[in-house]
């Protein structure tokens, strides 16, 4: 059984409430239940933090024992050299995901410190981005 973790960054705890026209009206906890029901052959863990250092600590914690990390670093994608370096330093492959198409938004969102160190990037498919990332590890 594959062991994956979804790591969500800042403000993603507000999914379902925050800008539903961009992020939808479903909470991540409700969506996670759907993912676990769909992928019964995968052990899916979940972690969310609004704190950059806590995300780095989680990557260090799982980065040598899990089969994959699905990371939506939120705004830290565009600012955190530290998270990018943490991904470079671990063995577990990371897929970067975004709910929105970051290239269709403000220009500062076009830069990612995650992408150069990620196995792949999935963006712009809403919550389906997470499912596509899981499929990249199990197919």
Q: Can you describe what's shown?
A:
The chain has a single domain (2-138), classed as Rossmann fold, CATH 3.40.50.9100. By secondary structure, the protein is an alpha/beta fold. 33% of the residues lie in helices and 20% in strands. The mean pLDDT is 91. It is globular and about 35 Å long. α3 packs parallel to α4. The chain contains 5 helices and 5 strands; from the N terminus they run βααβαβαββα. It has a 5-stranded parallel beta sheet with strand order 2-1-3-4-5, with helices on both faces. The record marks 18 as: Transition state stabilizer.
For the termini, the CA-CA separation is 13 Å
- Count of all domains: 1
Helix content: 25-40%
**What coarse outline follows from CA principal-axis ratios?**
globular
What would CATH call the architecture? Answer: 3-Layer(aba) Sandwich
Q: How many helices does DSSP assign?
A: 5
C-alpha-based Rg, rounded? 14 Å
Largest sheet: 5 strands, parallel
Beta-strand residue percentage: 15-25%
Poorly predicted ranges: none
CATH topology: Rossmann fold
Which class of secondary structure composition applies to the elements? alpha/beta
Q: Please report the total strand number as a whole number.
A: 5
Average pLDDT, to the nearest integer? 91
Largest sheet strand order: 2-1-3-4-5
CATH class: Alpha Beta
What's the CATH superfamily, by name?
Dehydroquinase, class II
